[in-house]
Q: What sequence folds into this?
């Protein structure tokens, strides 16, 4: 039980996908301008990551490893994630329209989010079982949410500030992102093992 | 030897095929029926996705029109032709005279309204308004730093002497300025109504008089003189109820502070 909690908390804080592993930087900078869009994107990422990790785990275990085709992981996982996102979109549109509307454009965008592929590959590399994979992925998604929401708050404050002309826009955002990332390095060594 | 190539290729190929068939089946099985009229309306729209209607794009507007949440004449790009086309598709009649425009409910230019302090922060109404309610002595009035003018995609708002003015012939009722104004003094009104109380102050008459030479002091003369009784007083602020107003212009003659003003737009021209 302790191990599972450590996996989840570790994925959120210590190994934060955006701020410590630098995966999924594109959506991190792209949709963190407003808190509401940041929440929409994060919700979609948590959702897709959790499902994708379970499916990729099954594909890896019973198809790729079984046939000795471990080297096809990357391409097979991308295929799985892309198909899965499409499928989830179709199903959500029919069954849960409010959720579909709130996720909106972010759902198809996640297909190309490297954090989703990253989490699937890390699960394999670390030999996690199905439960651990799903929990780690959920933690990774929540960590992504935390990073995005924190940073959206920072950016909304930056908007109101008087910034030197040469730093306006993306430069000041990158500096702010670096500072937030440095702050997250304080979590390194939170769990010693 | 050849197997080493064939097996991985067939595994990935069949995986792809499986997903493809699965998705095709799912899209049939979970198909969402789209209202035919939405598609027809979408077809008729310009398709520029400019967001001028206040929706996320043409798709959102098409859905809104069919659902009845957006006005049929809400697309600023399509113009009269589009309105006719849409009313044909939807089978509704649209009164062309009843086109909304934005009006700034304040007449406090720099020369009319006193200053509380000199503001030298960033040129943004929201930022200025957060600082003790803004530099203007009247806490209800136009801040004058032009958030609405910057928000207007059609260049229909100009800043004149610290006051926003809507050029009504250019206004397309996209309501972006209404959302941009931190003081919430821009209102959507029917363009056929010429007379508006250009004041939003809820302060007591004496205070209004002290701060601003054109503020409504709530004397009630207009409401007494109005032949159709459509002017009501909310505390110390007069309001012309659009439904009853006949554009007679009696109110403007008696208003002592000239806070009732006349707007004329291209559609309705009265000869007096």
A:
């Amino acid at each position: 039980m302790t191990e599972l909690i450590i996996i989840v908390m570790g994925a959120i804080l210590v190994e934060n996908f955006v701020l410590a592993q630098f995966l999924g930087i594109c959506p991190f900078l792209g949709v963190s301008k407003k808190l509401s869009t940041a929440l929409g994107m994060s919700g979609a990422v948590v959702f897709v990551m959790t499902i994708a990790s379970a499916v990729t785990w099954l594909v890896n275990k019973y198809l790729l490893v079984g046939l000795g085709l471990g080297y096809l992981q990357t391409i097979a996982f991308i295929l799985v994630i892309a198909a899965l996102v499409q499928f989830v979109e179709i199903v959500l549109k029919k069954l849960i329209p409010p959720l579909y509307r709130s996720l909106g454009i972010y759902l198809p965008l996640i297909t190309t989010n490297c954090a989703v592929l990253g989490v699937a590959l890390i699960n394999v590399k670390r030999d996690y079982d199905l439960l651990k994979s799903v929990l780690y992925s959920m933690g990774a998604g929540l960590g992504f949410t935390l990073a995005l929401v924190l940073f959206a708050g920072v950016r909304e404050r930056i908007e109101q500030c008087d910034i030197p002309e040469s730093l306006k826009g993306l430069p000041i955002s990158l500096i702010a992102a670096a500072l937030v990332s440095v702050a997250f390095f304080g979590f390194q060594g939170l769990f010693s093992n | 030897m050849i197997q080493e190539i064939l097996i991985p290729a067939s595994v990935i190929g069949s995986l792809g095929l499986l997903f493809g068939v699965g998705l095709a089946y799912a899209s049939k099985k979970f198909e969402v029926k789209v209202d035919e009229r939405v598609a027809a309306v979408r077809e008729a729209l310009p398709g520029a996705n400019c967001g001028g209607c206040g929706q996320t794009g043409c798709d959102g507007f098409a859905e809104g029109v069919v659902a009845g949440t957006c006005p049929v004449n809400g697309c600023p790009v399509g113009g009269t032709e589009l309105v006719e086309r849409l009313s044909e598709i939807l089978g509704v009649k649209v009164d062309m005279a009843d086109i909304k425009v934005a009006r700034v409910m304040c007449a406090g230019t720099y020369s009319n309204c006193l200053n509380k302090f000199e503001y030298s922060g960033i040129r943004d109404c929201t930022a200025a308004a957060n600082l003790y309610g803004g530099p203007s002595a009247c806490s209800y009035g136009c801040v004058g730093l032009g958030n609405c003018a910057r928000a207007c995609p059609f260049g229909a708002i100009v800043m004149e002497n610290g006051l926003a003015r809507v050029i009504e012939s250019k206004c397309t009722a996209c309501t972006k300025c209404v959302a941009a104004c931190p003081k919430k003094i821009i209102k959507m009104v029917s363009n056929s109504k010429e007379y508006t109380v250009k004041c939003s102050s809820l302060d007591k008459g004496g205070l209004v008089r002290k701060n601003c030479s054109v503020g409504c002091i709530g004397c009630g003369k207009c409401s007494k003189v109005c032949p159709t009784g459509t002017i009501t007083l909310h505390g110390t602020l007069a309001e012309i109820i659009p439904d009853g107003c006949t554009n007679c212009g009696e109110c403007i003659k008696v208003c002592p502070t000239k806070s009732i003003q006349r707007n004329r737009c291209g559609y309705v021209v009265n000869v007096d």
